[in-house]
Design brief:
The complex is a heterodimer. By secondary structure, chain A is mostly helical. Chain A has 14 helices and no strands. Chain A has one domain. Chain B has two domains: 3-222, P-loop containing nucleotide triphosphate hydrolases (Rossmann fold, 3-Layer(aba) Sandwich), CATH 3.40.50.300; 231-300, Alpha-Beta Plaits, CATH 3.30.70. Chain B has helices at 43-50, 72-77, 94-104, 109-122, 138-150, 168-181, 194-200, 218-222, 240-249, 279-289, 303-312; strands spanning 3-14, 17-28, 32-36, 58-63, 66-67, 79-82, 156-160, 186-191, 203-208, 211-216, 231-236, 253-262, 265-272, 295-298. Classes of the chains: A mainly alpha, B alpha/beta.
């Protein structure tokens, strides 16, 4: 077990450092912080609502993740296949799981850094009023879990192609569908013809419905299981795809 | 001798192409095997199966007595592999890259540093330690790939075209390195540069269309050439018939052929009986019979010719 963790850790460290080897990571962090702030203040009406909470801040996370997380995930395997280093990686004495997990954790940690960079919002709202910090903590955890689910899908798609742009577009499309499936806009159009169980099944697959509940302070086990199982499933698919495509 | 690398009936198909069609070979400790073949013959695919990167459709690969399919991690720990083109993480500098490899291979702390230092010294990378791999020249990149492969001092070393694209000095360095490591490892080097086989390999295997078509030392492969060991000589055209007769009178000479003529001189080729070298007998003959030969050359042939002969010969419609 310790051995497995050590090798995974070695890969995580390498991948995490790789994000910061170009200015891209910094640019990404700035965009993320600026956009979450801008959405909270200008679209969400952070001040106008007159409430000391971070609901308008978290509300837009799924939409931001839609584009930003596939951008973080796209290089994970596509780059490895393009440069041929996958042959090096997969002939080192590690299991495919260690590679997949190591990469995923590095990207997830990177998103974690981005979330930590938004902490001034939290401090601000505490200075202005008396928010329910429990809800905020739950929302941060929910947001991080949701990002993990987006990321696992992105990582899986990244293994399908050598082209990072394609990896980005396909992953963003899939994530878009998973977010949209919770919108009334989509569900309403189906109510006319689809049976109720199908609609609730589709809605329960949505990132939005689960995340909405968490940001309202309702942390259900089912929501956590939803995100975690999605991550596990996507990483399993990732493993299968890596095995299938590594030599192409 | 301990067999450290073994392939048993390896087969791999890609769609309609039989990339590797039943390759079996064994490499013992101390051997450097040159793996030759035209492009697309299946060299890289065979190496990828030996190193566990690709799963064979059938057959098995063994590294240091361990089945690559059953215990991949143990087998890979015994193996140093430099894939074609020596891929490495270009965003890292040489030092960090080698430290990463050391860490993944299970070395840490002082031991990791010692290993990295030793590999750096062997591959002569001191001057580029803090340079990003992306910015290195081809020769240095190749050496980083080698350093990575020998970092854990593996029993088995497999390198896919280690000298491809290097200048003569760099090639010399790489070959010297291979020769130095040869005595306590089993090494496979693929190449299409045939001089390399004579320079570093104790044995050569030529594959074509996914099958082994020749296996032996460079010398034994060259003996396959019909003119190996024959003697060619230039004589004035006026003396051709006399010389031919003189040669054929000599019992050790089996045949004399005219193989060309230019500028009033004829080129004759004499072969001794039973494929024995013709030179010693002819030397005596030339001296005692006063044959007026202007130039006398022992023909060895080259691996290039063996290679062409073997890999272009029509071997039927086996692959449709």
């Amino acid at each position: 077990m310790a051995e497995l963790l050590r090798k995974t850790w070695a890969i995580t460290k390498r991948e995490f450092a790789a994000y910061f080897s170009t200015p891209l990571a910094t640019v990404f962090l700035i965009i993320f912080v600026a956009l979450t702030g801008a959405f909270a203040f200008y679209v969400g009406g952070f001040f106008e609502r007159g409430q000391a909470d971070l609901a308008p801040f978290f509300q837009y996370h799924p939409w931001l993740y839609l584009l930003l997380v596939p951008a973080v995930a796209m290089r994970l395997w596509a780059e490895e296949r393009k440069s041929g280093t996958i042959e090096l990686l997969m002939t080192l004495p590690i299991s495919p799981w260690e590679a997949i997990l190591g990469k995923f954790l590095a990207a997830w940690a990177f998103i974690g850094v981005a979330l930590i960079a938004t902490m001034p919002m939290w401090i601000t709202v505490n200075l202005l009023g008396d928010p329910d910090n429990g809800v905020i903590v739950a929302s941060y955890i929910g947001s991080f879990l949701m990002a993990g689910a987006f990321l696992a899908i992105g990582s899986c798609i990244s293994a399908l192609t050598k082209n990072q742009v394609i990896a980005f577009i396909v992953a963003a499309t899939i994530c878009f569908l998973l977010v949209m499936s919770g919108l009334e806009l989509v569900l309403g159009s189906m109510r006319a013809w689809a049976p109720e169980f199908l609609i609730s099944a589709i809605s329960s697959l949505s990132f939005l419905s689960h995340f909405d509940r968490i940001t309202k302070g309702v942390v259900q086990l089912s929501s956590i299981i939803f995100y975690v199982s999605l991550i596990v499933f996507a990483l399993f698919a990732n493993r299968v795809i890596v095995e299938m495509k590594k030599a192409d | 001798m301990a067999v450290l690398i073994e392939a048993r009936e390896l087969r791999k198909r890609f769609g309609a192409i039989n990339a590797v069609d039943g390759i079996s070979l064994a490499v013992t400790k101390g051997e450097v095997l040159g793996f030759l073949g035209p492009n697309g013959a299946g060299k890289s695919t065979t190496m990828k199966m030996l190193t566990g990167f690709l799963e064979p459709d059938s057959g098995s690969a063994w590294i240091g007595g361990i089945s690559v399919a059953d215990q991949p991690i143990i087998a890979k720990a015994k193996l140093g592999y430099m894939p074609e083109g020596a891929p490495a993480y270009g965003d890292m500098n040489t030092r960090r890259f080698l430290q990463f490899i050391a860490e993944v291979r299970g070395f840490d702390g002082a031991e990791a540093n010692r290993r990295v230092e030793a590999a750096v010294e062997k591959a002569a990378l001191q001057s580029v330690l803090d340079q990003k791999i992306d910015t290195l020249s081809k020769g240095f990149k190749r050496r980083v790939g080698m350093a990575q492969a020998i970092l854990h001092d593996p029993q088995v070393l497999i390198m896919d075209e280690p000298t491809d694209g290097l200048d003569p000095n760099q090639k010399h360095h790489v070959r010297k390195l291979i020769a130095e490591m040869a005595k306590d490892k089993a090494i496979i080097v693929s190449t299409h540069i045939l001089e390399e086989v004579e320079a570093v390999c104790s044995r050569a295997v030529i594959i074509n269309k996914g099958r082994i078509v020749a296996d032996g030392t460079a010398e034994s492969l060259m003996r396959r050439l019909s003119y190996h060991g024959t003697v060619a000589m230039h004589v004035p055209s006026s003396r051709v018939e006399a010389v031919k007769k003189a040669l054929l009178d000599f019992s050790a000479i089996a045949s004399v052929e005219t193989i060309g003529s230019a500028n009033g001189k004829v080129r004759l080729q004499a072969a001794a009986r039973d494929g024995a070298p013709a030179a010693p007998q002819l030397a005596t003959l030339i001296r005692t019979r006063l044959i007026e030969a202007e130039e006398v050359v022992v023909q060895r042939g080259s691996l290039d010719e063996v290679f062409r002969q073997i890999t272009t010969s029509d071997d039927g419609a086996r692959h449709g």
